[in-house]
Design a protein that fits this description.
Order of helices and strands: HHEEEHEHEHHH
Strand order of the largest sheet: 3-2-1-4-5
Number of strands: 5
Shape: globular
Helix content: 25-40%
Distance between the termini: 38 Å
Structural class: alpha/beta
Strand content: 15-25%
Number of helices: 7
Oligomer: single chain
Low-confidence stretches: none
Radius of gyration: 19 Å
């Protein structure tokens, strides 16, 4: 199986969509139990909102946990997470910055770098704007040093966007973004040991493509994020 993380619900949805095989959840669950098929377990997320040591700008929590949107590009969430790979006994890290749209849960843009710095976040933002010209969403993040930087706030203002930030130690304020990190790492990262940078980067890039275009979500009506996005554009 190319995605051993799948539980019986996702297996059922994929069978119907991609193989034309119809069955209800209970039947697939019975078969999975008989065959000993289990999804990967959910690991706890130890990350949380932390305030920068010397924040230059703090925004209110304008989003206020309203994790839905009426259209694409109305509400964006963003964050940075890290991944490790090993060369011998040496531990190396890469950092993934991404922007998630709350309407269709698509990953709007992402950047992978060796350093967690301002350029990582600023380039992610620039890529999102380039891909969605004229978009003026509410942009929500935690209080990491990149997001509390005056230069980042100025970029948002110049683009006509409103900035929003999670409260300190309130991970749920950026819940769907944290949730995406958990999905990615549970399905492709945890339980694997990456021994070179290129393989790890390719895994991340391939997964985001899979997530946006192939991974069905029941919360989206058993559609992929891109299908939800394109469905909206077709009737707009």
């Amino acid at each position: 199986m190319d995605s051993p993380d799948k539980g019986y619900r996702r297996i059922r949805d994929d069978l119907e969509r991609y193989s034309g095989i119809k069955a209800n959840d209970k039947r697939i669950l019975r078969i999975c139990r008989k065959k000993g098929i289990k999804s990967t377990i959910k690991y706890s997320n130890n990350g949380c909102t932390r305030q920068a040591a010397n924040p230059q700008f703090i925004a209110e929590n304008v989003l206020n946990r309203e994790f839905s949107a009426e259209a694409p590009n109305h509400k964006w969430l963003t964050d940075v997470t890290e991944f490790k790979y090993y060369i011998g006994i040496e531990v190396h890290k890469i950092y993934l910055s991404a922007i998630l749209d709350l309407f269709d849960r698509r990953i709007v843009s992402f950047v992978i770098r060796d350093s967690n710095n301002n350029a990582l976040v600023f380039d992610t933002f620039d890529a999102a704007i380039a891909a969605n010209p004229g978009a003026t969403p509410l942009c929500h993040s935690d209080r990491g040093f990149q997001y509390t930087n005056r230069a980042f706030h100025a970029k948002l203002e110049a683009a006509g966007m409103t900035q929003s930030m999670s409260r300190v130690a309130k991970c749920i304020d950026n819940g769907p973004m944290e949730g995406f990190w958990g999905i990615l790492k549970r399905e492709r990262y945890y339980g694997n040991r990456f021994t070179d940078r290129d393989t790890l980067v390719k895994m991340i890039e391939d997964y985001i493509e899979y997530y946006n275009t192939r991974r069905l979500q029941r919360k989206l009506g058993i559609l992929t994020p891109f299908e939800k996005y394109e469905q909206y554009l077709a009737v707009a």
